[in-house]
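Before a colleague's protein record goes any further, I have to sign it off. What it holds is a sequence and that sequence's fold in token form. Would you go through it and say whether the fold makes sense for this chain? The record follows directly below this note.
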Amino acid sequence: MKNCNITVGFIGGGRITRIILQAMKQKGIQCKEIKVYDPDSLQIEKLQSVNEQIRSFENASEAAEADLVFLAVHPPEVKNSLQTIKDTIEPQTVLVSLAPKIKIDTFNQILGKNCPVIRMIPNAPSVINKGYNVIAYSNSLSFEENEVHQQVIKLLEALGDLIHVDDEDKLEAYAVITGMGPTYLWFQLHELYEIAKEFGMSDSEARNAISKMVKGSVETLLESDLDFDEVVDLIPFQPLSQHHESIKELYRSVLTNMHNKLK
């Protein structure tokens, strides 16, 4: 076990909390204590099946008595949750928000104190420690001098790549592109996987073929010296080419609308 000598609290016990706890388990991270508040007992049971270390609490304030507090609630619930825990949160408590839209300044205004705040756009592949998690943080964090802050970052790095941006306003763009990004691809890749098996590939052959094909395709598009037209021209026959424009328009209209709502 890798000891993480801090107490961690989760306000909200939904899917992102499960993802973080699963990632910690796979990395063998053992915290001093893990506290969780969620009014749904079924969510607590799911979390305990992932990590037996967690303790559930009857109210959010008790779970927020920690060195590190994850605010793992939906965006409309963030401000109410902050109001609930503001008297419990100490000035040195590190608060991690997993929601878009709500700015760091808003957190400190509601809390009435200048707490160290990290805003993170989480990424579902963190569940296998392969996430691309983007963060912005307040000036009150000192990763070179503060041991708690160092342990917080090490815990977040266990989720996968941890990308810091100075411009907090970019987080909503990352929410659309990386946070929700897997949903744009998973159903297509799963359909390819099912079709491959229908065509006679074994399960392992289909998995390996699609995995390697996707990795190579991404690297060819983004890491070669070829421009987009040259990449596309590498394959002479493109069965879905007649649908490209309508698919691109769908991406642009839906994602632009989503980004505008988050901003």
Summary: The mean pLDDT is 94. The chain has two domains: 2-168, 181-262. Residues 2-168 form a domain with the Rossmann fold fold (CATH 3.40.50.720).
